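Note to self: keep these together.
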Amino acid sequence: MNKPAPKFLLVAITVVALVAGLLAGRYLLAPGADPHAGHDHTDAAPAGTAVATKSEVWTCSMHPQIRQPSAGKCPICAMDLIPVETSSSGADDGPRTLVMSESARALADIQTTRVERRFPEVTVRLVGQLDYDETRLRSLTARFPARIDKLFVNYTGVAVAPGEHLARIYSPELITAQRELLSAHATDPDGVSARATRDKLLLWDLLPAQIDAILARGDTADAFELLAPTGGVVVTKNINEGDYVKTGEPLFRIADLGELWLNLQAFESDLAKLRYGQEVTFTVEAWPGETFTGRIAFLAPDVDRRTRTVPVRVNVPNSDGRLKPGMFARGQVRVKLAADNQIFAPDLAGKWISPMHPEIVKDGPGPCDVCGMALVPAESLGYRALSPGEAPIVAPATALLRTGKRAVVYIKKPNTESLAFEGREVVLGSETDGGVIIVSGLAEGDEVVTQGAFKIDSSLQILAKPSMMNPEGGGPPPGHDHGEAPAARPAPLSLEPAQARALLPAYFKLHAALAADDLPGSKAALRAMMEVTGHTGPLPDLLHGLLGAEKLDTLRRPAFEQISDALIVALKKEPSALEGTVVRMHCPMVYDDRGADWLQATDDLRNPYFGSAMLTCGEIVERLK
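Structure:
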């Protein structure tokens, strides 16, 4: 007869069976299977109760090589880290496409703008001085020997009107000529001899009224007044009372200030935007708040080898006389651009212009009202009359990521279920005010990223996809040295003169550190520059990438050249506002085909591109201040 099992044995068997069941369930489930599949957990946690989430990896949008398990600051640039999960690597439409959630977009502060087809404007800024109009200068010379008995205009700067007396003279030759005039008219007033003696006096600069006075008086005059044949300002006086002058000696030079010349200097890079006949607006310090206008009348055929600029002459009306020769002027030309460096001028469509006097514009051919030369079509001077459909595609400058000859933009893909951005390589045309003409790569209406493009590019690099720095994908992250930089000149950054002046102290520290082969000092100077620029924009994006560099060559070429070129262009717009010495240097050895420039605060040449290897290689090419 079997006895029943003890109670404690039953309990032990139950516990063992329960543990075995749990272990079997854990190890028999397939990897990745959801043990809670088929169950509804929407109400599992009460409202307001925190729910555990999967672990996150946090990175820097500017330095994606940084990986941390929690939120914090980037150890390189001190920006707030973002979770890697903000970028989705699934379900995209191409190798250069990044899918983002709306929350990720808000965190990255992505902003977009539609590109448009239009004729953009660009402002060409010029500086120069006002001067006399050479075509309105008149020299008075002695037409016969004379003694200066009385000088009425006895100092320069005197304004004279036509017919106003300049000096009282005595001349035996003039007395003889008066007698010949009186004798000829007494014999035959209308005869050949009378006309000849009258013409002789006219050639001696006597006015017709003076000749008529001699005939009316019927006698010669020993003292004779020399009158001004034209009006203006006496700018040169070569005689004094008591002087005896010979035939041909200069007496006075008179300038008509009713029109002046404004002599400006244009950089080589701006020459393609300038045309004969363009309107120039300018200001002078003597009349603050007022704007004056003129038209380009001459573009020099050669470049000044010392300043690397092209002289430009502007005809300026000055009927009220407020403008004075010698005044310093700041001018600008507003130009409407078409494709291929063409100038769009709808106001000159079908017009005809004088080749010597640009202010003469007519609806058809004919002679110039001033000089009589034949008018020429406006199209022959480089202007184009285009329809709106021929306008180029224009994108904001902030949408471009540039490296060497390449430029990349990111567009928001239309008609997609999720938020997606796609990278495109574009071919660039001319720079405009705040934008760039796109030759190819974009279509009208494309929505391009104008803020946050570098963050999108960094996310693609994290995913080993093609990006700006790694067009084939799978390359090293930003800040990694890529070896020798391409010889192509990097696309210029855009800076305002005030911002460029604010960056100069930190820039000079960067130059000194590079020349001294000091990598930590160079990065400290980059951080000082970021204190001026902030964290948003093309230049801050470039600085962010440089902070992760491991070699000096990464900072030197082409990055330092790109920063230097941006400062040079911006500072040249307002050189008079600079404080202290600013010298532009050039080293022809940086690249085999063109060399590179930089700025220094002294003449003591220190090459930042080679450092101690070739510290004194280079030369001074220009003094900005």
